Amino acid sequence: MSGPLSTGGPEPKIGWLLYDASCGFCDRWLSLWRAMLSRTGIETAALQEPWVASHLHLSDKDLLRDVLILLKDGRVVRGAEAYRLAMSHLWWARPLYHISRLPILDQIFDSCYLIFNRNRFKISHTCGFSPNRK
């Protein structure tokens, strides 16, 4: 990536955590963690924001498939790895980050992420979490 993105928001030190704003659970989770992530240098933005799609050049299906972290250097971290990256920057979550890297436990962590991700809309509905329409 050459130069900062024009996102209309603060310029992060690390990157942007990009989430599906149409997922009630994701939207609720980010409303709780946004300020803490920002203090670590990770800003947040919805995958549905126009600048995200124009920068990543992904189909809608690929764009909304996983949580992403767009690093300042242009690299994209997807899915369980995005959660690991975020955990590695939160002092209290670093033990979980290290556990999620251990043999066998890394596969369990990845599998749990995939199961949750495939069912996030059902979980949102069951928990009564509807996304905030801004």
Describe it.
The protein is of the alpha+beta class and about 130 residues long. The protein has one domain. It is about 50% helix and about 15% strand. β1, α1 and β2 form a beta-alpha-beta unit. The longest helix has 17 residues. The chain is globular and about 40 Å long. About 20% of the residues are buried. The mean pLDDT is about 90.
Number of helices: 7
- Tell me about the largest β-sheet: 4 strands, mixed
Structural class: alpha+beta
The domain tally reads: 1
Low-confidence parts, pLDDT < 50 over ≥5 residues? none
Helix content: 40-55%
Task: Please state the average pLDDT score.
Answer: 91
Succession of helices and strands: EHEHHEEHHHH
Based on the model shown, name its key terms.
alpha+beta; 134 residues; four-stranded mixed β-sheet; 4 strands; 7 helices
List the helices and strands and how they pair.
Blueprint: E1 15-19, H1 24-40, E2 42-46, H2 50-56, H3 60-63, E3 68-71, E4 76-78, H4 80-88, H5 94-99, H6 105-118, H7 120-127
